[in-house]
Amino acid sequence: MRRTSASLVAGALVAAVAWASSPSTSAIALEPSAGVADLTQDINQILADSRLTIARAGVVVKSAATGEELYSTDAGKQMIPASNTKLFTSAAAAETLGLDYRFPTTVLSAGRKIGSALTGDLVLRGTGDPTMLAEDYDALAAKVAAAGIKLVTGKLVADDTWFDSTRLGSDWAWDDETAYYAAPISALTAAPDRDYDAGSVIVSVAADGDKVKVSTTPETDYLKIVNKATVGSSTDVLIERQHNSRTVVITGTVADPYQEWVAVDDATAYASSLFRKALDKHGVRVLGPTVTGAAPSGATELAEHESMPLSELLVPFLKLSNNIHAEILTKAMGRKVSGQGTWSAGLKVATDFAKANGVQVINMRDGSGLSRRDGFSPGSIAQLLTAVRGKPWFKTWYEALPIAGNADRFVGGTLRSRMRNTPAAGNVHAKTGSLTGVTSLSGYVTSAEGEPLVFSIMLNQYLSGSPKDIEDKIAVRLARFSRTATVDAAPQLRQAATDAPDLECSWLKPAEC
């Protein structure tokens, strides 16, 4: 059983009550207080850290109830947000698609059934479900077999036309092409486990006598494995897919089991290979090859699988900062609003949503923040956080944000190792963001007096030494904020840097963080 101090429990209860309340409809006139001046002085001191001497730092703190600005520095400057971009994508998706939105994956008959034979093509049609597992494709194949089909005389058609054929973001780094966090975006895809990193395969190695044994999750022959690794006294192994190919080369030494998430080169081909293998397992033989194309008009449905609703998908998406979910939802929004499953159509939906909610400084190039050309201001992020409090989906969205100091991966998410045993633990609900030289933290915190606050911290262009502890110090200080009294922040300001990694957990698999 986990033990939690009474003060942390009390803080969490105060936060829950504060954020369950609806936003005020009218501003409350509050006189400047010693508490606000004290807060300003302490944040300024935190930001005086030598690691930020040549860096850019933008910070905004506002009262969520009144809109009063409590602290601001470079609030209007456009900065690289990294995964704080997901705040805009997820909020726009909740508004545009709705919390009940699901991704259907269907199997269609494009021919005539004669006895146990389908004289024509079998079509697998996707709409972008990032949660499809090998077992889900297996269940679809079982339904085809249960319909009495044992032979398909035509082709297996993979219909991924719900989205366009652009697979990678135009600004994404070339050397990220094989990384699971930059996997190809397709309307047909598959994830290896319930983190739902769609478009990737887990490649595992283990010493087996004097040889290195290689396995994959899911079991698939889609990848070509070239195993050059040897058994050694320590594990120092590299598992890497070669660019623009299906070949994974494994080199180095293996003593202890190790695994790596590897992006596939073609998500549609990968998914359809899993389905074809499942068909064969269930006794359904397809004579023709697997091809891509649109289902013909008049094709009839044989089987369907629906994803979890968006209300549930928000949890792995935001808690684990899943880039692929962000991009799939972006294209899904474009498809719903304009009939075009493209980045440009989806980004227009997200941008229009932000502007309709008072956001001014915004430049969205993708849905995840992987692009270094994304640009937001701290003030714009704070404005979004304030505006969405009145949305009917806010409570679900708020609970899907990472929660500081909670060790459960699907509660604490990318903040699970941060701000533990502080007033911010169980209190701060916020989105992290990480790129090389970029870190951000934006979200909500309840003050010591129960006042709901929104904040955005954006740090750009630092050269060395992770400044995530600076974000944490500010967030903890906000959790201690009082309008009526000054706070002795000296112990916090002297606190050594935390062991928080320079990049958020979603970038660091399989490392534990």
Summarize the structure.
This is D-alanyl-D-alanine carboxypeptidase/D-alanyl-D-alanine-endopeptidase. Residues 1-20 form the signal peptide. The chain is of the alpha/beta class and 513 residues long.
Task: Describe the fold and architecture.
This is D-alanyl-D-alanine carboxypeptidase/D-alanyl-D-alanine-endopeptidase. InterPro entries: Beta-lactam/transpept-like (IPR012338), Peptidase_S13 (IPR000667). There is one protein chain. The protein has 513 residues and is α/β, with parallel strands linked by helices. It is 28% helix and 24% strand. The protein has twelve helices and 21 strands. Strands 3, 4, 5, 6, 14, 15 and 16 form a seven-stranded mixed β-sheet that branches. A five-stranded antiparallel β-sheet has the order 2-1-21-20-19, with helices on both faces. Strands 9, 10, 11 and 12 form a four-stranded mixed β-sheet that branches. Strand 3 (104-114) and strand 4 form a beta hairpin. Helix 3 (85-96) runs parallel beside helix 7, helix 3 packs across helix 8 and helix 6 (310-319) runs parallel beside helix 10. 50% of the residues are buried. Mean pLDDT is 91; it is low at 1-17 and 20-30.
